[in-house]
């Protein structure tokens, strides 16, 4: 940093400001990288476009938030490691606090406001896209009922099962409700999650794009066995799905 000493602002000459800056530069990529990779690994590979866009969005938000988190962390670390003051009187440097600088406050508030606006606009665009999927005419409909502590699925042909089967690459709209308390229907690798409320139907939509077996969980603390309120979704070819829904669904319900 070869700044002309005459033009260097007073605050930049302070040791603690430089320390905070160095820690901030180190912390920002660490928080961004760890934050974005850990959350992606913890949820598994995406099984729908929705999940792919959720992962991208979370990665983007994490990287946008990382410098802010790093700055707060850097200030805390600098303060904890280098500042100590005892006694009832304020330390002599208290008048240099950031809150006494109108310019620093203006910058802080402006950047925060811009970041919030960015999150709001991007979030609304993604939400809008998700809402559009609910009115897809080509979609199949499945009723999902949560109760302590199982999920049941009712298909268009009247079949019922306790393990979800879906054809690959076919849009599906879930109509979700509950028989007792509040639950939350979460298809982990497909990136959809919606509340299951008694006496009320909520809707969410997705198009699975990968054949395989994926996780369904309850994401709302709903009682003693909440942690066990989970089952699987089998995504299969259309032919396999047709064969399954004709035969297995009804027998599984009876079992
Ligand atoms: Cu539950």
Topology:
Blueprint lengths: L14 H29 L5 H34 L19 H32 L6 E8 L2 E5 L5 E2 L2 E4 L4 E7 L4 E5 L4 E5 L5 E5 L5 E7 L11 E7 L1 H17 L1
Parallel strand pairs: 1-5, 4-10
Antiparallel strand pairs: 1-2, 2-3, 5-8, 6-7, 6-9, 9-10
The structure holds copper (II) ion.
Give a written overview of the molecule:
Helices cover 44% and strands 22% of the residues. The protein has 255 residues and is α+β, with helices and mostly antiparallel strands. The protein folds into two domains: 124 residues, no CATH class; 115 residues, Sandwich (Immunoglobulin-like). Strands 3-2-1-5-8 form a five-stranded mixed sheet. Strands 4-10-9-6-7 form a five-stranded mixed sheet, with helices on one face. It is elongated, with a radius of gyration of 26 Å.
State the low-pLDDT regions, or none: none
- Tally of separate helices: 4
SSE succession:
HHHEEEEEEEEEEH
Distance between the termini: 73 Å
Helical fraction equals: 40-55%
* Rg (CA only): 26 Å
Q: Biggest sheet, strands in spatial order?
A: 3-2-1-5-8
- What fraction of residues sit in β-strands? 15-25%
Largest sheet: 5 strands, mixed
- How many domains? 2
What's the count of strands?
A: 10
Bound molecules: copper (II) ion
- The chain-level structural class is alpha+beta
What is the 3D form? elongated
For the residues shown, what is the average pLDDT? 86
């Amino acid at each position: 940093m070869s700044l002309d000493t005459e033009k260097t602002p007073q605050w930049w000459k302070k040791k603690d400001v430089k320390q905070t800056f160095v820690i901030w530069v180190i912390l920002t990529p660490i928080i961004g990288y760890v934050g974005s990779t850990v959350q992606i690994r913890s949820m598994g590979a995406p099984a729908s476009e929705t999940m792919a866009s959720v992962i991208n969005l979370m990665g983007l938000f994490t990287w946008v938030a990382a410098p802010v988190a790093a700055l707060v962390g850097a200030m805390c670390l600098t303060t904890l490691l280098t500042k100590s003051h005892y006694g009832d009187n304020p330390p002599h440097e208290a008048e240099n606090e950031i809150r006494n600088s109108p310019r620093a406050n203006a910058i802080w508030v402006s950047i925060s406001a811009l970041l919030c606006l960015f999150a709001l606009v991007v979030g609304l665009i993604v939400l809008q896209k998700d809402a559009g999927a609910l009115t897809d005419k080509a979609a199949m409909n499945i009723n999902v009922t949560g109760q302590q502590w199982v999920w049941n699925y009712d298909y268009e042909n009247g079949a019922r099962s306790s393990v979800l089967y879906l054809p690959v690459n076919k849009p599906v709209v879930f109509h979700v409700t509950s028989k007792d308390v509040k639950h939350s229907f979460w298809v982990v690798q497909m990136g959809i999650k919606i509340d299951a409320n008694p006496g009320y139907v909520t809707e969410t939509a997705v198009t699975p794009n990968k054949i395989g077996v994926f996780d369904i969980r309850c994401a709302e603390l709903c009682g003693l066995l909440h942690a066990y309120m989970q089952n699987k979704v089998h995504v299969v070819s259309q032919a396999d799905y047709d064969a399954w829904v004709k035969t297995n669904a009804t027998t599984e319900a009876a079992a």
